Amino acid sequence: MRRPVDVGDPDRLYTVTGGRSRSDGSSFDLVTLIVAECEPAVGQQSEHRRILELCRHPTAVVELAAELSLPITVVRILLEDLLATGRITPRHPRVAAAAALPDSALLTEVLHGLRNL
Amino acid sequence: MTQPADRRPDRTPSSRRTAPTLPVCLLIAAAAAAAAAAALAPEKARAWVGAAAAGGWILLAVAVLVGLATANRLRARVADAEAELLDVRGQLDTRTAEDMGLAQVTLPGVVRLVREGGAPDDVLRQTRPPALPSQRELLRVCVSALADAEQRAATAVASGRRAADDLARSTDDVRLLATATLPDVVATLRGGASVDRALAGTHWPDDPALRALTETAIRELALSERRAAAAQAASAKALSRVQAKSVSMLADLRDMQDRHGEEVFGDLLRLDHSTSQLGLMTDRLALLMGGRSSRAWNKPIVMESILRGAVGRIAAYQRVRLHCSTRVAVVGFAAEGVMHLLAELADNAANFSPPTDEVHVYVEESRTGIVVTIEDSGLRMSEAAQRRAEESVSGRMTDLALLQGTRLGLAVVGGLAVKYGINVSFRPSARGGTGVVVLLPPQLIAQQPQPERAPAVDAGAPAAAGSGAGGVPTPRSAPESPAEPSAAPRTAPADAGLGGAPGERAETAEHTAVRERAADGADEYGRASGHGTDGRGGTYGGGGPEGTDGRGGTYGRSGPDGTSGPDGGGGPDGGGGTDGRGVPLGGLPMRRPGRTMAAAHAELQQRQAANSAARDAARSGPDTTPGGRGTPGTPDPHPGARRTDTGAPDPAPGTDPAGAQRPPRDLGARFGAFHRARRAAGESEPHRLAGDSESPRAAGASEPPPAVRASEPPQATRESEPPRAE
Known about the structure:
Chain A has helices at 13-17, 46-54, 61-68, 72-84, 95-99, 104-116, and strands at residues 33-36, 59-60, 88-91. Chain A is mostly helical. Chain A has a 3-stranded antiparallel β-sheet. Chain B is rod-shaped and about 215 Å long. By secondary structure, chain B is mostly helical. Chains A and B meet through helix 1, helix 2, strand 2, helix 3 and helix 6 of A and helix 7, helix 8, strand 1, helix 9 and helix 10 of B.
């Protein structure tokens, strides 16, 4: 019997979060922009380093999740760790910024256009 | 008076001489006295006195004569007795001489003759018979008894010799059995031979009883050997099913963790943890039973993941503190073994320390390999326990019979240590407990990222290596990371236009995974050592085409790598009949692990189409260079990806300077999120990106859309927009 070769990563999510499964605050929305306040340092958890690298420019939580291939909950927990040590700053999207967004009809159109390509 | 005369025969002549004279003198004296008396007597009385005296004298004479006669008679009797005595003495001497002759001459002669084997009658005939009949009788009896005894002795000696021979033969047989036959048979049977083969090759003992015994023993041995092997194989087989199940459960759980929200996340993690522990136990048993680990990795695993994978399998993983700052990776084939070994040791450490204390795991690189130290603060091991543990992990106790009930883990550690050449030693820890030092030898360490790119080149196109190396050195040597991403987009279009695209697109997911890993390493390595910065110059050029590959999700990660060099070089080479990996495009499809042949075939066709399109594009005119990224995309089944990629630079120089600062990988990442959200929304998707765009984990099994992101597709869409609008 030929076994399928494992292509994923061996770390389980509870080892990434240290056993925590719940982020306690609601400080991170899906679209909260995260900005790194410092450079990744040697000795940090690799996910923290990746987050700090990715957040050199403001990056949304959901993007981080997609980038790290981790569930949102895990990313929130990791971000809370970083926030607790002051390594990141969350920026919540402004209402004004939301007002400047194109309306959903335009977005749907863009979506259709993309799909038709 | 006679008796003393008998006893003193030497005096007899003198008494004999005196005998006649003394009575005569006595008679004469008496006659004289009587005469005197008669003479003296008065006359008147003289007659009477004379008569009385005469009478008295007569009486006396009679008495003397009688006495004399008696003495003579007695004397004669004494002489007779003396003669008889002499005769008897003579006889006695003769007899004694005869006896002596018999004892000293005859009997020894007879004995000699009998010893020489003569029959009793012959012997008697040859011997001078003794004079006396009693002696003759005695001799006859002696001879017959002697002959009898001699015969019996001969028989006894013969039978004793026979017995000794028998004994020697059976001793030889037994020795042969013990030293040659049984060990041979045991070795043959251990080697898996059948009973009949073992019996045929047996050197049989001569003794039928031993023969029967040997055969019985061999058959029993074969039976028990077969039983043990069958039990082991059956349990290994059964365990492999359990292993497969637990691996698929882990994969399912990971999917669910992606798909479900926070409300069940904790439960899923708990299940995940239990399943991982189950996996450790199953693996432990499977390894003991001669089976295999449940998983196998086809890529190097960085040490941090190794440690996490290890402690994730033990119950008390939250008590284990990892101190790992190294970025080295363990080669794929050994990664699972190393993880299992560390898990067992960490489990041991956690079990033997107080439940409130932490177990610390340190990793350091040394010239001799990677040293992993697991220290607990539990009880210090006694010397005997330490010796036992050392013995267990030495791998010498491979026989299941030597296992002690609770030391399965250490036995597995021993097996793994021997298999991979890992050195495990115990020592007292400075924390008060026990420290386990694990030395992973250098051959288990994946090559450092810088040399690691060489295999990637090899895997790519050997011919392209030169051109790839030529393509890599961008003159700009960016100092360190932070400024670099912003500088990168400037070089991106140019590099991408150099024709890296066709080769890039030909990548399979697996290859991507390998490269991506290499890229991660290269990134780290470059950052840590200041190397590879030239590779990063070409980086985003490489990143561009990768975007056309539809790898939106991982775009950013694979962007800043050094591997774009070889691939960029592979591009022009693609026109020469090979793609970026050196696979001949006209050849047979190559199947990658985890993919079907049909998929590989389709991929090959697609690659060929892409290649011909690229050649067309190259022929159509050199002025298409900026559009070169678009052209190879014609057969590309990922229009969305291409769209973003070509779209990305547009706002960058034009509308938004902030966006220009943003490295294109962020755009790709954003698109990845967007795309996933769209998929999660349940829309039909003609061209799945999962195979390429997802993390390598998803390459094997198509990943279901994450529900967390699926819950708010408009938001995801929106969040992909605002930064662009900013």
